[in-house]
Amino acid sequence: MRLHRLDITAFGPFGGSQTVDFDELSAAGLFLLHGPTGAGKTSVLDGVCYALYGAVPGARQSGQGLTLRSDHAAAGTRTSVTLELTVAGRRLEITRQPPWERPKKRGSGSTLDKAQSWLREYDGTAGSWKDLSRSHQEIGEEITQLLGMSREQFCQVVLLPQGDFARFLRADAEARGKLLGRLFDTHRFAEVEKRLAERRRTAEAQVREGDAALLADAHRMQQAAGDAMELPEIAPGEPGLAEAVLSAAAVARATAREQLTIAHCGLAAAESRQAAAERDLADVRELDRLQRRFAQARERAALLEERADGYHQAQARMERARKAEAVAPALELREAAEAEHRRAAAAEARARGLLPETFAEAGAAGLASAARRSAEELGGLDSARRAEQRLGQLVAERADLEHEERSDEDVLQEAETWLSGWEESRAGLQQGVESAQEAATRAEQLAVQREPARKRLAAARQRDEFARDTDDAQRQVIEATERALKARAEWLEVKEQRLNGIAAELAAQLTEGAPCGVCGATEHPAPARKDAGHVDRETEESALAASQRADEQRAEAERRLAFVQRALAAAQGEAGDTSTEELAVQVEELEREYTRARGLASALHTAMEQLRQAERERERRLTAQREAAVRTASRGARRDALDRERTALEAELAEARGDAASVAVRAAQLERRAALLTDAADTARVAEDTAQRLKDADARLADAAFRAGFDTPGAAAAALLDDAAHRDLQHRLDAWQAEEAAVRAVLAETDTADAARRPDADVTGAERVAAHAAGRVREAASARDAAARRCAELDRLSARAAGGLRRLAPLREEYDRVARLSALAAGTSADNERKMRLESYVLAARLEQVAAAATVRLQRMSSGRYTLVHSDDRSGRGRSGLGLHVVDAWTGRERDTSTLSGGETFFASLALALGLADVVTDEAGGVRLDTLFIDEGFGSLDDQTLDEVLDVLDALRERDRSVGIVSHVADLRRRIHAQLEVVKGRSGSVLRQRGGG
What we know:
Elements: E1 2-11, E2 14-21, H1 22-26, E3 30-34, H2 41-53, E4 80-87, E5 90-97, E6 100-103, E7 110-113, E8 116-123, E9 128-133, H3 136-147, H4 151-157, E10 159-161, H5 162-170, H6 173-184, H7 187-225, H8 241-306, H9 308-324, H10 328-353, H11 364-379, H12 382-420, H13 422-500, H14 502-508, H15 537-575, H16 580-601, H17 604-657, H18 663-708, H19 713-719, H20 723-748, H21 750-757, H22 763-826, H23 838-861, E11 866-871, E12 883-888, E13 893-896, H24 902-923, E14 931-935, H25 943-955, E15 962-966, H26 970-975, E16 978-983, E17 990-994
Parallel strand pairs: 3-15, 3-16, 10-14, 14-15
Antiparallel strand pairs: 1-2, 1-4, 4-5, 5-8, 6-7, 8-9, 11-12, 12-13, 16-17
Helix pairs in contact: 5-24, 6-23, 7-8, 7-22, 8-20, 8-21, 8-22, 9-20, 10-18, 11-18, 12-17, 13-15, 13-16, 13-17, 23-24
């Protein structure tokens, strides 16, 4: 980075506009910025920092930039800073204007204008400046990226504040760490420490959570085991928890299994005692049963003795019933004959009740004769029935004739009405046909006009589209031409730069002892070097290819423009000058007329079909009219013949039906009379037969009763038992006999008789003993089940705890690994012997680099006496710090930098600042810092040391650097000829530049 020019207006102590020509000052390599205290020497450096970063160093930046405005400036003059510099081979100009509270243009009061920024770059080819950006953020990002340093780094590296580095020499490790951390951006290593600590805390929380779950399972196991398990007093996360829990669980499981075995033995003993009690209870119950059985048998024998008379009576009754069973068939036969005779008599009475009184006394033969006479009379009515049916047919035919007559009259009237309007209907239909034919002709004419109109409209639309494409193509040709010219200019510029640096390419091909391809010399004392902006052959060829591609794109754009212009001319020739809108309206109107004509023409077929249907309907109506007239003429003769036949049939039927309403009614009367007479004759004969059979049955019954030993048939009937009574009586006899046999058997049993002679059985006591034994079994079973559940629960919880430990093992390993790394990075690990944090370790390495770079200049400034070294000796809290010691070559002793004198502290801090600038520059990507400023401190040096320091600073010119010294030491004004003086006055400070280049 090289500064060229600085323009400041109304900035700091400068009320007007001031300009600093750094190119003139830098020509001498070393220049002095001096002036009385408070004149504004530091404000010049503030202007450079503000132009680059939009802010000034340290605490001087406040009030959003409002405090940067000079109190000496006129009300209408705006604060402005413009810096011209070269960085990374690019010449830039940065202009910044802080917020400005200016008087209002109208009225009283003031208004605040926002801050503004401009970034421009010089175009060497065009010889002019071009704007890059007006955004504060974009400009800040661009400058920071080009310089590779933040504002804090820039203020420490380019604007070397000697007071800060003197404090740096004397500061403790923490203060040095903060400064180095800002310069080298080592916060990422601190973030690594934080991330490791966070991961350690997260893993520790997960391990604690797993231990808490394990401890919860242990408490559940303790609850399940009762007093058989004791838990260790270890908190979650402490070592040894898992082993202690598993050991306690194993002891609890073993104890539970022992208790289960004991419970099994107790249950077996209780079950044995219960079995003995159950056997005793069964014996007592059996004794009680036999005793009660014997007592009951005695009671039943007494009861049988009391009921013996009833048993003997039942036996006599059963004997009489067996004798009466021999008379039972004759009784049944007589009852059947009597029932049959009653039914026959009832049927005869019903049949005679339906006959006229004239047949009440007639016998079966008389009734049969009367039935034959009625049947003969019914046979004589067959001819009358046929005549009656024919008469019904004649009536129906006569009604059909009248209906046909009415129908023909309707047909004749309807045909006459329809034919009367035929001519008018025919004319209307004919007119519809003609209209449809005219519409079809019109549609054909419009169809011929449609296609040319459509083509013309399409051509007009293409004409408009090609017109727009022509405008776009012209714009693309212009843009492609501009790009082609720009690419060619860039190629020519690159080519010129390569030609200017061709010596460096040729020098790169030189070999020691080989002749030069240009001059032929074999010695190459000062071969040309490639500078930072050197252009090689590949870059030139790339620029040439880009230029050629731009020319091809321009030619392609011109070809497309020509094509579009030809297409536009063709479209204009076909469409004419009529606008697209007018042509669209014409086409739309033509389409509407065509659609309407097509709609009317489509009705032609329908109209012609309607005309043909109407003509066919006329012929049908005429035919129907003629046929109806013929039917009317022939209908009169048929009507007369039917009337004559009807008269003859009515006379014949009147004679045949007599008093009845019709022949059918008369026939029905005769059929009913014949049926009733026949039925009455049949029932009379049946009644006479059943009376005879009843008389025969009475005789047989009397004979059977006498032989069975009964006086009368009634006595035999009374002795009979029906099935239910017989079964009941037999059941009582059998029951009495069975009971007598059972009682005799029980009383004869030896066991029962022996049990009756023994004392009464105590069933209640035996049951009480058995119940007590069963209760003991239940208690033993409950104890066994509880022990089994305890074992199962302990096994389940132990398995779950073991599974949890297996799942927790990777987390515990992860926690141990992260905890070791976190402790190592935080400096708390035993493996970290010097207790040094990770960030401090990185900063210590940087400090070693800075000390090495500073020692090169410090030895020259101190005539080889002092050397700066980094010390990693432990400081407070037992940690290694960022120590900085100085080695005195005269004494061979290493001591702290705080023991240096004021002058020694100055040149040591200067050497440290220059070394730090070199290291930070390398850290920033190797950006060259061609302009440096050193602020104050030279007044503490003697003449010899001052000469040595100035020699070191003057040696910086060997690296094409320029160094500006900010000091008010008078001796420096004699030693340094290039000066920038700050003169202060009542109206503000001004700058005076002299002695440059």
